[in-house]
Design brief:
Blueprint lengths: L1 E5 L10 H14 L4 E8 L7 E4 L2 E7 L2 E3 L2 E3 L3 H10 L3 E6 L2 H10 L5 E5 L10 H14 L2 E4 L2 H6 L10 E3 L14 H11 L4 E4 L8 H7 L7 E4 L5 H11 L4 E5 L3 H10 L2 E4 L10 H8 L4 E4 L5 H4 L6 E4 L4 H13 L1 H18 L2 H17 L4 H9 L2
Parallel strand pairs: 1-2, 1-7, 2-4, 7-8, 8-9, 9-10, 11-12, 11-14, 12-13, 14-15, 15-16
Antiparallel strand pairs: 3-4, 5-6
Helix pairs in contact: 1-14, 3-4, 6-9, 7-8, 7-12, 10-13
């Protein structure tokens, strides 16, 4: 079975959560006999026009312009039509409005599914213009995946297509993450210690890091921020204005260093305060390494991964005082931190492995292509009811 994944960015140009989901899904389904390719845009595709991420071929069209955070490529139509022709099924990763247009103009009538990673949030004012295109695109989908029952229930869009919805949580494979060498562990232990609170992610407006910095005032515990992004300089200026000496900005780090920091940290803190944060792969990574989690209740998958009082602490969004109290509580209570971290690991093993995710997607692909309706697919559909 040949699957073509479609998203606006991918490795090596971008290392966000959706890219990680595609990577984990492609790797896991390859072992189940699926042949995966990824179609994406790039600012410099000519450097290496065709790449491979493990067994997955990456097809990159040159980005022409970007409007309202939507990458567009005039070259993409021809390249996408050729890639779609060689696919049995096209798997879109939403939102990317230009992807809607690609399917309608050059999809060749191929069977298609989409994973609904997030509502359109920041560009919501443009929805009256975009909605007709979105409706045509969604009407052509043979299946739509919500990554959590929480997001299905709280989204304004997904309930309109409930008959097409399958709930398939995101999953990760621990073996796909590098085991850090002892010298890297020692290096980061010397640099950051062992009891810090860790944030990992692209530094974007919806990540709530300005809230985290406000919460660090008067906090004795250390906070380590890993990642780069559009608001990085604004955050550094805010930290300087607040006089924070307990916050470190490490920038982008290698996967090996990220794992080392995950192993060393006290807990993972994830202050995203807007619905653009639909799931939170970093929360899964923290759970995978047995760490307690702190997140905000925004009606999305972050509260499906992190269950308040079981795997961590869930606080109101945009509340620096509540975040400060949550970090103090975990920082001062070793037994609580260990109990929550252990439960987070157990929940990860039960619900969020890459193999479980991959099997559910293979069932969905087979159902679309061959009319099969497996027992595991029925179970995942039931999660959304």
């Amino acid at each position: 079975m040949r699957i073509l994944h479609v998203f606006k960015t991918y490795y090596p140009d971008s290392f966000g959560g959706v890219e990680q989901v595609i990577r984990q899904l492609s790797t896991a389904t390859t072992r189940m006999g699926i042949h995966n390719r990824v179609f994406t845009l790039s600012r410099k595709p000519e450097v290496t026009p065709a790449l491979h991420d493990g067994p997955t071929e990456i097809i990159r069209a040159k980005l022409t312009l970007e409007a309202a955070s939507t990458p567009v490529s005039l070259q993409a139509f021809r390249m996408f039509a050729a890639a779609a022709k060689n696919a049995d099924l096209i798997h879109y990763h939403y939102p990317w409005p230009f992807g809607d247009l690609l399917h309608l103009a050059a999809g060749g009538g191929k069977p298609a599914v989409l994973t609904y990673h997030s509502d359109v949030v920041r560009q919501k004012g443009l929805m009256p213009l975009y909605r007709p295109l979105m409706k045509r695109f969604f009407s052509r989908m043979d299946g739509i995946v919500s990554t959590s029952p929480n997001y299905l229930q709280s989204s304004e869009v997904l309930p309109l297509y409930r008959e097409k919805i399958t709930v398939i949580p995101i999953g990760l494979e621990e073996k796909s993450y590098p085991q850090p060498a002892s010298d890297r562990i020692s290096y980061w232990r010397a640099e950051a210690g062992e009891d810090f609170f860790l944030f990992v992610g692209v530094l974007r407006y919806y990540k709530g890091l300005h809230i985290l910095l406000d919460a660090c005032k008067g906090l004795k515990e250390r906070v380590v921020i890993v990642g780069a992004g559009p608001v990085e300089q604004d955050l550094k200026r805010q930290a300087a204005a607040l006089g924070l000496t307990n916050v470190s900005f490490l920038g982008a780090v290698s996967d090996e260093d990220k794992v080392a920091l995950l192993k060393l940290c006290r807990a993972v803190v994830f202050p995203s305060h807007l619905r653009s944060e639909a799931f939170g792969v970093t929360l899964l990574e923290g759970a995978m390494y047995g760490k307690p989690l702190i997140s905000s209740e925004i009606g999305t998958g972050s509260s499906y991964v992190n269950i308040d009082g079981l795997t961590g602490i869930v606080i109101p969004p945009n509340d620096p005082l509540a975040l400060n109290k949550a970090m103090r509580r975990l920082g001062q209570d070793d037994l609580l931190s260990k109990r929550l971290g252990h439960a987070a690991r157990e929940r990860f093993e039960t619900m969020f492995t890459a193999e479980k995710m991959a099997r559910a997607y293979v069932d969905l692909y087979q159902g679309v292509l061959y009319g099969e309706n497996s027992e595991s697919q029925n179970l995942e559909r039931h999660l959304g009811d």
